[in-house]
Amino acid sequence: MRNLSRITIGLAGAILGVCLGVANSGWAGNVGRVSFSEDVFPILQYRCLECHKAGAPGVAFSGLNLESYEGLMKGTRYGPVVVPGNAMVSNLNVLVEGRAGIRMPHNRKRLTPCEIDILRNWVNQGAKND
Ligand code: HEC
């Protein structure tokens, strides 16, 4: 049931083209330009910084500090989590989309379909600091 309702919500969002008009999933062929400072960073601030800022557990365990663009692009102590232009292989997207054994935000409510789309479109558009 939980899965079903999530899929229904995602489809409704895609069909209605919601997501504030910036970033629907793209199968309508009309993905708006996504900006790091206006679209991506607010999501990181609200959903990730609790753990991914200096002194917090996400940084202690992985080294990933999401307080800045530079921190996001530097990635974890094992390497980058963003491959510009390729959200399929970027760990940032893999984890928030639930495509791996662990999911982010860790032990918190998952991102909304719109937030997931924004992160995916931003990476696919080249992960620019704009
Ligand atoms: C409640 C705390 C918490 C929140 C909120 C959180 N994280 Fe994490 N994150 C962690 C911890 C702890 C780790 C280390 C996990 C491990 O190494 O097992 C981690 C690791 C990661 C990693 C690296 C995983 C790897 O491959 O080593 C990524 C990428 C990541 N988080 C992204 C995010 C994003 C993006 C958000 C927000 C959408 C987020 N996290 C929110 C706690 C959190």
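^ heme C complex. Residues 12-17, 21-29 have pLDDT under 50 and may be disordered. The pocket of heme C is lined by residues 47-48, 50-52, 57-58, 61-62, 64, 76, 81, 91-92, 95-96, 102, 104-108, 111 (CB under 6 Å).
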